[in-house]
Amino acid sequence: MSARGTSGVLGMAFWAILSNPAIARADPSVCLSSHPEGTLVATYPLSKDAGFALGFIHSVSHTPVLDIYEIRAGQVVQTSEIFQAHGAGLPSMSDEIDATGWHHENGHFILDLDRPIGAMIVRIQPEYENTLHIADRSIPLASLGFSVLRIAACETQG
Known about the structure:
By secondary structure, the protein is mostly beta strands. The protein is built from two helices and eleven strands, in the order ααβββββββββββ. The strands form two sheets. The protein has a seven-stranded antiparallel β-sheet.
């Protein structure tokens, strides 16, 4: 299977991390808006015991990457990054900023994080398969028709 065909598999394979009932999340939904215009594009509810993930194909290593998030106190917090190969912009040590752990599992590197982001701006490029994973749904972000999206807890939308 090619690296491009594995992004969905990677997203589903690590869905167990997202649905861990031991992790409490306060916000009920995540909102996507156009950037810089701020037009609301979509709202996706999160169950109380689940977060969301962004998957993409790394531009240098051409391998799938999955970034796991939750919403705490009205802001997006990255809780891990899962990837297959080291490349530019990917972690390479356990002393990365906001890292809480580092391990290798089932052929993937996993960097555990507690990294508050607030809201994030994501440049959408179809060739990199930017995909939002929520529960059992995978939304290809290019299908929303915007080249740049702001992703935030809904109550932080301005």
